[in-house]
Design goal:
Length: 220
């Protein structure tokens, strides 16, 4: 299959852990699908969600650490806005690489000249586009070399952490999660024991398989 691969890198990344608001802030080791569609929307300059385009992706990082971060908390008292600073511990991923796969040349070419800044997490986790390549992918109906990605829990049981995550967010204030479901989160060094009998592809250049996330007909 003719496909398009976008390679993005960043020095730092931090992907919010669900349901944790204050205190220690750990990071997911794999960006959720909603982050991927946020990147596509930023590159395009308009709202794009999971119903608009299927994708595959792979994420890798070199190391991680815990750092201290100053945050500012706001509250109101009468007509006065009160602020105070606080220090929290945050997990940060370093030397990150993200590959996003498209079957649509238009979506891939958004990354040749992104409209807005690309982020791998917070506003200071700035990312850069390294390349946008046209490649050939080999179709696979049984996936045995998955890593660095998310896989819906509806597939065969995998020995990996599970998180309930939305596939996209709505384009409204406040935003609402769309298609929330449990996902397996596979780190880049993940060793798969059971095959996943789902549609995917093999990238012979990078020697890994891609789980194909297609929600074009399943989201309202």
């Amino acid at each position: 299959m003719k496909a398009y691969r976008v390679h993005i890198t960043s020095w730092t990344a931090s992907f919010r852990y669900p349901n944790l608001i204050s205190g220690y802030q750990p990071s997911l080791f794999v960006p959720p699908l909603s982050t991927i569609y946020g990147l596509i929307s930023a590159a395009a300059g308009n709202y794009i969600c999971a119903r608009d385009v299927p994708v595959g992706y792979l994420f890798d990082f070199a190391t991680q650490t815990i750092d201290l971060e100053t945050i500012y908390q706001f509250s109101s008292k009468g007509n006065h806005l009160l602020t105070k600073s606080n220090v929290i511990r945050r997990q940060i991923l370093f030397d990150n690489s993200l590959w996003i796969y498209f079957n649509d040349v238009k979506r891939a070419h958004f990354f040749c000249n992104p409209r807005f800044q690309l982020l791998l997490g917070r506003s200071n986790d700035l990312a850069s586009v390294i390349s946008v390549d046209e490649i050939d992918l080999e179709p696979r109906m049984k996936l045995t070399k998955l890593k660095g990605t998310s896989v819906p829990m509806e597939t065969v049981a995998l020995s990996a952490p599970i998180q309930a995550l939305p596939v996209s967010f709505t384009n409204e204030i406040p935003r609402r999660g769309m298609g929330t479901q449990p996902f397996f989160l596979l780190e880049y060094d993940y060793e798969q024991q059971e095959p996943v009998h789902k549609e995917g592809f093999y990238d012979p250049q990078l020697d890994h398989e891609i789980y194909w996330h297609d929600y074009t007909n399943s989201l309202p």
